[in-house]
Design a protein that fits this description.
By secondary structure, the chain is an alpha/beta fold. Helices cover 31% and strands 30% of the residues.
Length: 240
């Protein structure tokens, strides 16, 4: 089954006070099958993050369609979905891991992960147990669990971000440089979680600079250059 189908997608940004339009992604096509992990690599500014943010509907394209196969809503063009539909999908089906943590103030680390589960309808007991298991997996110091993330280091914030997204076991998970500020041991924990989610059927699209991290993990890896997506790269994909 095709989980995600992008057709003729193109995106540009307009700087109104300069009366200037900057192209970000040239019209492109991309298909992701259910259970696949598709990786995208490329230099900064090549358009990688723009693709992910458009799938998540943070951005709207100037052309094209992004069809997602929802468990609840059926096949839906995310470029045309209503705000209510997108809120539902973000809560229940589509996860997004950013390099940056943007959360409600005065909400503790533990509460943030628990709330991710509660909004999906999990019981308080189950949410508490699963949240603690996720924090342990990503080796968050228990002394930080009831602290506010504003005080955390960059790596701690990123691990919390990943815990909040992966604990929900989304049908589609979007990863925007999920290992950017992590040490080697933390990267291993992220890889283990990705492998576990993939084995459970999660479809993933991720962008990376760390080719070594991707080795043997992705089913397909595409190279972005100047807003254009190239043919899959050889040698870094999962075999078998």
């Amino acid at each position: 089954m095709t989980m995600l189908e992008i057709k003729g997608f193109g995106k540009s940004f307009t700087i109104h006070h300069l009366n200037k339009t900057i192209p970000a992604v040239s019209p492109m096509d991309l298909t992701v099958e259910a259970g696949e992990f598709v990786g995208i690599v490329g230099k900064s500014g090549s358009g990688k993050s723009t693709i992910l943010k458009s799938i998540y509907r943070t951005y709207l394209p100037y052309s094209g369609e992004i069809h997602y196969h929802s468990a609840q809503l059926g096949k839906i063009d995310l470029t045309q979905a209503t705000e209510r539909q997108m809120l539902y999908l973000r809560k229940n089906e589509i996860g997004y891991v950013s390099q940056f943590l943007n959360v409600m103030p005065r909400t503790t680390c533990r509460q943030l992960v628990q709330n991710a589960l509660l909004e999906m309808g999990e019981s308080k007991e189950s949410a508490k147990s699963e949240a603690e298991a996720a924090l342990k997996h990503f080796e968050m110091d228990p002394e930080l669990w009831d602290s506010y993330p504003k005080t955390f280091s960059g790596g701690e914030k990123l691990r919390l971000n990943i815990a909040m997204a992966t604990v929900k076991k989304p049908r589609l998970l979007l990863l925007d440089e999920p290992t950017a500020s992590l040490d080697h041991q933390s990267k291993i924990k992220v890889r283990e979680m990705i492998e576990k989610l993939k084995s459970q059927g999660t479809t993933l699209v991720g962008i990376f600079h760390d080719i070594e991290f991707m080795e043997g993990l992705c089913d397909k890896v595409f190279d972005m250059k100047d807003g254009k997506i190239a043919l899959p790269l050889e040698g870094v994909v999962h075999e078998g």
